[in-house]
From TrEMBL:
InterPro entries: RmlC-like_jellyroll, RmlC_Cupin_sf
Protein name in UniProt: Cupin
Organism lineage: Bacteria, Pseudomonadati, Pseudomonadota, Alphaproteobacteria, Rhodobacterales
Length: 105
């Protein structure tokens, strides 16, 4: 997810990484823990593994609160730029699946 442009405090754990797909667990220890500012280089899907709130700061500086529900995925196209922050008073985590290869091959 993160291209390394700004170091965050959340912990990414890569679970699968091959020529077609990267699967990463993102774990946020506490409120305010964040991914760091980054731009997505691939289409991706996020699957929450628990209910919670993420506060997402977009490239325009606007903050959106996203309410995530366990097992309810969402999809985004490549190019999204943001910092993702834990908006909960508890540890929070989600799984991110990046599609590293086009469907056309």
């Amino acid at each position: 997810m993160c291209d390394g442009s700004t170091k965050g405090t959340a912990t990414p754990t890569v679970l699968i990484d091959n020529a077609r797909t990267r699967v990463t667990e993102w774990r946020f220890a506490a409120r305010g823990d964040n991914t760091g500012w980054h731009r997505h280089g691939y289409d991706y899907v996020v699957v929450p593994i628990q209910d919670g709130i993420l506060e997402i700061t977009g490239k325009d500086g606007a903050v959106t609160k996203a309410e995530l529900k366990t097992g309810v995925p969402y999809y985004r196209d490549l190019g999204v730029e943001h910092d993702v922050v834990n908006g909960n008073d508890f540890e929070f985590a989600f799984i991110e699946l990046e599609f590293l290869e086009n469907a056309d091959g």
